[in-house]
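Batch job 17 of 40 flagged for manual review because the log was empty.
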Amino acid sequence: MSGETISIHGPDHNFTGYLAKPKSGTGPGVVVIQEIFGVNQVMRDVADWLASEGFVALSPDLFSRIEPGVDITDQTEAEWKKAFDLMGAFNVDHGVADIAATIKTLRPLTTGKVGAMGYCLGGQLAFLTACHTDSDASIGYYGVNIQNRLADAEFIKKPLMLHIAGKDEFVNKGAQAEIIDNLRDNPLVTIHQYAEQDHAFARPRGAHYDKAAADEANARSLAFLRKNLA
């Protein structure tokens, strides 16, 4: 399955995204929120996978305000350095605004409801998407720095699912406990913990990829999206 690049118009910024549609041509929508490597093959593969499951998926270029068209991997030291430099320059609130614009662009292409699913940096952005946009359901995989924005949780109005890696090298045990303790009693929030997994356990070909854990998380995500976006 192959998608296409489309334009996304925000209130103060225009950018592009990778769009993948199901064979039916339409369905519920999902915004696929990138890691620190841009809209790369991994993100396009996620969008294509969601399209194969009946969703209209759109992955926006959230680094476009810094450098449009970032498409790198996790396979070399130089790419990791560039990825961390981009993350350091990235404005999270601008990212949320661009996700809101992406949802607005995607919704007319769908059967009505639009959710969001993000990884790493995108996991934090998925949390903030649940807090500050009209996403109908949001999912974050091993989100970084969520503990720094927990005050925003009071604005959650629609379901949120978080996948937390117990041995996450970028989210220490204290941060994980803070996130869980602050969100566990919110009826809109579902938290799944993977005690033996490290960061990016669901990224194929990544150093910490674990197929069994990834399959379990992805099955939970699909069920969550189908329940809340139907």
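Reviewer: the log was empty due to a logging misconfiguration, but the result itself is present. Residues 115 and 136 are 5 Å apart (CA to CA). Unflagging and moving on to job 18.
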